[in-house]
Design goal:
- The strands form two sheets. The protein has an eight-stranded mixed β-sheet with strand order 5-4-3-2-1-6-8-7, with helices on both faces.
- Helices cover 38% and strands 19% of the residues.
- The chain has 414 residues and is an alpha/beta fold.
- It has two domains: 155 residues, Nucleotidyltransferase, domain 5, CATH 3.30.420; 186 residues, Nucleotidyltransferase, domain 5 (2-Layer Sandwich), CATH 3.30.420.
- The structure holds adenosine-5'-diphosphate (ADP).
- Adenosine-5'-diphosphate binds next to helix 11 and helix 13.
Length: 414
């Protein structure tokens, strides 16, 4: 089955076409036929598309919205069909899988999209006002462009975390607020954490129910997840993706009293404070330079920039704090820590900074193995009580597989 995977954001649309079916899933031989991204939607958009095994096509043109972006993607697929294996026309796209950010408490697994599901996703707009509207636009545009006959599946960022116990997901605020407004920790990056637990199970050849690990998705957005008996037990992002680790431009955990204080002292509106915490904080805010970790590491190494170093130190320290908290919370301990996301898989320096002072917790890195970049690898020493792994994530693959399973009605085993 050729699945078009769409990840529609407010200003970008990413896609992959993945060839998958039960046999391919069992053999782990699903293949990505084409991929790409449309960025800066709403202005002069940039498109970068690639048929697997062929050079990238880059192009700029004004695009108004997600519908226009998906239209450009589909036109490119048609005009490049001769280069894309198994695709000769749009009829060769058999199903579409959408990344949907917020599924609230209602959606605990991936579902076939119909009117009722679309309403359910719209009901979660309050919880994800930036993300769910873009996801809905993507779904509606797909129906318009590919016809209502094409099966579309929603795969939620939140659903992997639906197994968290109440004691993990409730905040220390009046309980009736949970009842009234569903205020609770939801957690995000669920598809990534689920993929990492699946890949880890495969690498270590264990039944999923036996797995107790801490997964770290460190990209532009960052989150940690304690996985107990193969299920999400707790995670660092909360009611929104703002909570938890220090991120590229997001603050992560702060004292909530800061919000009122900032409004008074800086004369800001509530939405300006929200923008500051989401877009001007984190690595960018601390360093005053950039929210891009690679650039900060270069700045620190080449110019010894003090605030670049400070940003990296605060980032690494927060990750350590979460690892420490999860080690204390996981009753049967953790067997491994898994690094993923752009920073987690590409930066030996950050992994070293995070794990360096965790030797007292039984974590010892093998610095030679830690030099690995973007590949699956165990990077701890043989006598490390807790193992450390690098595993590149692949959310698109999981979305494609879920889409196949939902459409073909094949039960999911992980
Ligand atoms: P997203 O969360 O948007 O998918 P990624 O997972 O690609 O983003 O992660 C982006 C982050 O990874 C950026 O901070 C980038 O600087 C960082 N990164 C990429 N390569 C390296 C590298 N070699 N060293 C350090 N950081 C890196």
């Amino acid at each position: 089955m050729n699945v078009l995977v769409l990840n529609c954001g407010s200003s970008s649309v990413k896609f992959q076409i993945v060839d998958t079916d039960l046999e391919r899933i069992e053999a782990d031989s699903d293949s990505c036929l084409a991929s790409g991204i449309v960025e800066r939607i709403g202005g002069q958009a940039l498109t970068t598309f690639q048929a697997t095994g062929h050079p990238r096509d880059r192009h700029a043109e004004p695009l108004r919205d997600q519908r226009a972006a998906i239209d450009v993607i589909l036109r490119w697929v048609i005009s490049h069909a001769s280069r894309i294996d198994h695709i000769s026309s749009l009829a060769d796209i058999h199903a579409v899988g959408h990344r949907v950010v917020h599924g609230g408490e209602e959606f605990q697994k991936s579902v076939l999209i119909d009117d009722e599901v679309l309403h359910g996703i719209a009901d979660c707009i309050d919880l994800a006002p930036l993300h769910n509207p873009a996801n809905i636009k993507g779904i509606k545009a797909t129906t318009e462009l590919l016809g209502s006959g094409i099966p579309q599946v929603a795969v939620f960022d939140t659903s992997f975390h639906s197994t968290m116990p109440e004691s993990s997901y409730l905040y220390g605020i009046p309980y009736q607020l949970y009842r009234r407004h569903k205020i609770r920790r939801y957690g995000f990056h669920g598809t990534s954490h689920r993929y990492l637990s699946y890949r880890y199970r495969q690498i270590t050849d264990q039944p999923l129910d036996d797995i107790n690990i801490i997964t770290l998705h460190l990209g532009n957005g960052c989150s940690a997840c304690a996985i107990v008996n193969g299920k999400s037990y707790t995670t660092s992002m909360g009611f929104t993706p703002l909570q938890g680790l220090v991120m590229g431009t997001r603050s992560g955990d702060i004292d909530p009293s800061l919000i009122e204080f900032l409004m008074i002292k800086e004369g800001l509106s509530i939405s300006e404070v929200d923008t500051m915490l989401n877009k001007q904080s984190g690595l960018l805010g601390i360093s005053g330079l950039t929210g891009d970790m690679r650039e900060l590491l270069e700045e620190e190494a080449e110019n010894g920039d003090r605030r670049a170093r400070l940003a990296i130190d605060i980032f690494s320290r927060r990750v350590k704090q979460y690892i420490g908290a999860y080690l204390a919370e996981m009753e049967n301990g953790t067997e491994s820590i898994v690094f993923s996301g752009g920073i987690g898989v590409n930066s030996p320096a950050i992994r070293s900074r995070i794990c360096g002072s965790l030797t007292s917790c039984g974590i010892k890195l093998d610095e030679a193995k830690n030099q690995v970049v973007d590949e699956v690898m165990k990077i701890s020493t043989d006598d490390s009580r807790i193992a450390v792994y690098v595993i590149p994530t692949n959310e698109e693959l999981l979305i494609a597989r879920d889409t196949y399973r939902v459409v073909a009605n094949v039960p999911r085993r992980w």
